[in-house]
Write a structure and sequence with these properties.
265 residues; 6 helices; rod-shaped; protein transport; Sec20_C; membrane
């Protein structure tokens, strides 16, 4: 179809700019499909949103220029230009829906393409302008597509909530199990500490008993050695007056008798 030949210079320039933007949008969404990092996806969506706004402005300029040239163009040319504008509007809407789908996937609360500073009235006016150029079937298809996208976004949100609840339940169960395990460990440590304390006391008592027994044995040994020394001295030198009688050895007469008997032999 030789459409460009029927366009004025201004319309041809705007048509070329819109075609370039559509090509950039197609490449941009293909690139977005390959990006896995959410931050990079967000930046790419911002760039694509700016392209969509620029394309919307160009379509509006295309519509104004077409209406200014409407009286100077043939009915066939006007019909061809109007169909071309509707085709560009439909393609733009398809990219807007794709952008919304990616935005929903990232769970970002972004301002809609047509929510410009003009407010709600401007939004309704612009959307009404685009919708007035679409056929009933196109409007139905667009509505069904948007409802499907909304349903998909809701299902994804429900799945995220369900996964979050499951993870929370598993985490709570794990924490409870770990808490019980820590409590058992603390109880075991207390028992071990008590046992060690009792064992330390018992060792100290045994040490004191051993020390006492050794002292008694040493004293007994000293006494025995002293007694033996005195006995030996008395037997060797009975006339030694420096050594007193030892209790338990009997009277001096018995000791002299014992001494005489030993000398007689």
């Amino acid at each position: 179809m030789d459409s460009l030949s029927a366009l004025s210079g201004e319309l041809a320039e705007i048509d070329g700019q819109i075609t370039d933007i559509f090509r950039a949008l197609s490449n941009g969404f293909q690139k977005l499909e390959k990006i896995k990092d959410s931050n990079r996806q967000s930046r790419q969506l911002e760039e694509l949103t700016a392209k969509l706004r620029e394309c919307k402005s160009l379509i509006k300029a295309y519509d104004r220029e077409m209406k200014e040239n409407e009286n100077r163009s043939s009915p066939d040319t006007n019909r061809m230009l109007n169909e071309k504008k509707q085709s560009m509007t439909k393609e733009l809407n398809s990219y807007i829906a794709l952008k919304k789908q990616y935005t929903a996937n990232l769970d970002k609360n972004r301002v809609d393409l047509f929510d410009d500073p003009g407010g709600v009235d401007t939004y309704n006016e612009q959307n009404g302008l685009l919708a007035s150029k679409m056929s009933n079937q196109q409007l139905v298809d667009s509505g069904n597509r948007m409802m499907n996208e909304t349903d998909q976004a809701i299902e994804r949100s429900k799945k995220v909530v369900e996964d979050t609840v499951n993870v929370g339940a598993e985490t709570a169960a794990a924490l409870k199990s770990q808490t019980e395990q820590m409590r058992r460990i603390v109880n075991e440590l207390d028992s071990i500490h008590f046992s060690i304390k009792k064992a330390s006391q018992l060792v100290k008592e045994i040490g004191r008993q051993v020390a006492t027994d050794r002292c008694i044995m040493v004293l007994l040994l000293v006494v025995v050695l002293g007694v033996m020394a005195v006995v030996i001295v008395k037997l060797v030198d009975p006339k030694n007056k420096d050594i007193q009688d030892i209790p338990g050895l009997g009277p001096p007469a018995a000791r002299r008798l014992l001494w005489s008997a030993s000398n007689g032999n």
